[in-house]
Amino acid sequence: GEDVEQSLFLSVREGDSSVINCTYTDSSSTYLYWYKQEPGAGLQLLTYIFSNMDMKQDQRLTVLLNKKDKHLSLRIADTQTGDSAIYFCAESTSGYSTLTFGKGTMLLVSP
Amino acid sequence: DGGITQSPKYLFRKEGQNVTLSCEQNLNHDAMYWYRQDPGQGLRLIYYSQIVNDFQKGDIAEGYSVSREKKESFPLTVTSAQKNPTAFYLCASSLTGERGGYTFGSGTRLTVV
User: Fold this and answer.
1) Which of A21, A98, B46, B60, CA to CA, is 20 to 30 A from B32?
2) Which chain A residue shows the shortest CA-CA distance from B30?
3) Secondary structure (H, E, C), B13-34
């Protein structure tokens, strides 16, 4: 079955770049997503990438996809304390299938 | 404004009781989902529905039940058969076939007392 793996914790200083990594096992994964969850809240969709893309940039966010290694990363430039949250990677094999989520990476940004 | 609303935000249940969590959306989304979140466990799918009057079990459906009588509503009942119901419950919705991912509600924290 599908599996999505993430490191559990990342700590950075304010102003540095953060890189959150994710690996997935399903080679038929077509859509890959990054969500952000602040304490006690729901998940907010940050960005997503289709498997026919290698990179997607959206303001401070850059998503890199290595299909060969089934590796996805989210880079946050100029990380701010407001970026402290849990970040979830998710994948689906089609627009009609349910999303499979990783366990989330807690990002802690210190001043 | 369109969105997805979960209520209540906090819910306390005595052992042996059934409780129902509400989820309503006005996004005109076809599909709705319930997830359970436990610390360090990520999100686990309980039930989902892609059309009115139809729903499917997810990975951890035992001890839960749902209904989908209206497009806008997808309530989740946590039954007394669920042995460890204390968790954070998240509802989400999407357009069927939508590649843009899910819209989530703000969650309900259920505690057994």
Assistant:
1) A21
2) A96
3) ECCCCCEEEEEEECCCCCEEEE
User: What are B18-68's pLDDT values in tens digits?
Assistant: 999 999 999 999 999 999 999 878 899 999 999 999 999 999 999 999 999
What is the rounded CA–CA span in Å between residue B47 and residue A98?
A: 10
- Under DSSP, the state recorded for A83 is G
- How far is Cα B18 from Cα B28, in angstroms, rounded to an integer? 29
> What single letter denotes the amino acid at residue B2?
G
Tokens 């006690």 correspond to A40
Provide the strand spans (E) within chain A. Answer: 4-6, 9-13, 18-24, 31-37, 43-50, 55-58, 61-66, 71-76, 85-92, 100-101, 105-110
**How far apart, in whole angstroms, are the C-alpha atoms of residue B106 and residue A1?**
29
Measured between CB atoms, which of A88, A96, A99 is closest to B96?
A: A96
Contact B42 A96 (CB under 8 A): no
Distance between CA atoms of B52 and B74, rounded to whole angstroms? 9
CB atoms within 10 A of CB B46: 26
